UniProtKB/TrEMBL annotation:
One GO CC term, this protein: cytosol
Keyword terms, alphabetized: NAD, Nucleotide-binding, Oxidoreductase
Name of the protein this chain belongs to: Glutamate dehydrogenase
The species this protein was found in: Virgibacillus profundi
Molecular functions per Gene Ontology: glutamate dehydrogenase (NADP+) activity; nucleotide binding
Sequence ranges assigned to domain Glutamate/phenylalanine/leucine/valine/L-tryptophan dehydrogenase C-terminal in this UniProt record: 218-459
Assembly and interaction partners: Homohexamer.
Single Gene Ontology BP annotation: glutamate biosynthetic process
Site (Important for catalysis): 181
Domain of life: Bacteria
Pfam family, one: ELFV_dehydrog
UniProt keyword Cytoplasm, yes or no: no
Amino acid sequence: MNLTKENKSIKDNEIVLDYIQNIYKTVVERNPYETEFHQAVKLILQSLIPIYVKNPTYMENGILEQLLEPERVIIFRVPWVDDEGKVQVNRGFRVQFNNALGPFKGGLRFHPSVNLSIVKFLGLQQIFKNSLTGQPIGGAKGGADFDPKGKSDNEIMRFCQSFMTELAKHIGPDVDIPAGDIGVGAKEIGYMFGQYKKIRGSFEAGVLTGKGLGYGGSLARKEATGYGTVYFVQEMLKDHELSINESTVIVSGSGNVSIYAMEKAIKLGATVVACSDSNGYIYDESGINLDTVKQLKEVDNARICEYVNIHPTAEYVEECTGIWSVPCDIALPCATQNEIDVQAAEQLVANGVKAVAEGANMPSTTEAIEVFIQNNILFGPAKAVNAGGVAVSSLEMAQNSMRMSWSFEEVDAKLQEIMKTIYQNCVDAAEEFDKKGNLIVGANIAGFKRVADAMLAQGVV
């Protein structure tokens, strides 16, 4: 029977849809209880239907079957001694997901919520994010269910040394290059680098990124994720004849990403009126005083509620989720996964938000994203928006390989170009597959295609 072009297209869509549904069913059955991983897989699979219809080669060669299964999952115990001499035991993870484009690359997260599902969802996202940067890096993620909060520097050092004692067996400058994430900053990276150096007996600067400037770190690395988030937003707004200048912005969180997203937004003429931590949020109608936030969070290690003691005209509200009720033009979720649910999304839309860009990893639920899309809100997905951090990590690796350092301005200029390219690639991919303006589809397809083509070229290995 001869099929018309239209009927063939419908049949192809049905075949791909059945295939994608079976892939998702297999992932869920094979990885029970890993809800965050399931969510990340579902978001990606829905976006890939158009490229699979157009390129059946990916289906014939089992690219998704390979891509969604990590190359290696490492789980290990981390014993350490607290200041009272008592032995504590945490669990460490490293998921080396895909190295088709280059050595495994992805951060380490130290937080009580860390488990295999969290690390796998982050690792999967990292494959696409790293691909989008255009840099030669694969995807990985790791961490531990260790909470650095309330721990002394000596306790953190002992934990990091124990953690690295095991992790060192599985990483290297041309194998796997970890970096920081939540709970892992320059201090923790320094302790781990020192232990790695002791174990290996050599100075391998390229084994970790996010290092201190005195031993191989890169200028602008601390600012990169936050700055990159705003550079992406700037391009997205410009494309729709809007500007960040004179916009009202809210930013969840008050960690590294949040602080430097606020800094760049303010420099570009925006007024940031709210930010948060895990306890609550502050609202300052005249604009957040960033110097105060930096002092509280980067120096004093204090809670954000202390802000109102210094700026009494500001307001502090318990429960950080309430921040999404603050009217704004631009919302930047920069704290953690699933912080914007459907109710928060509806509130943002009702209050006139024009753009939402994900500075954190998967901070919006699937239902929340649907609300933004249905209401034509400009939406920047995490794997594209927050890729600035890993982009500059890759630039740090390049500087380490060349035994040289670039100026802040040089790194920042390269970061801006990378973020512009990421945005444009997302736009182009969405348009090519008849999803114009949908940057979620664009980011997933653009990220996937580069990895999938590399996997095809290398064969089944």
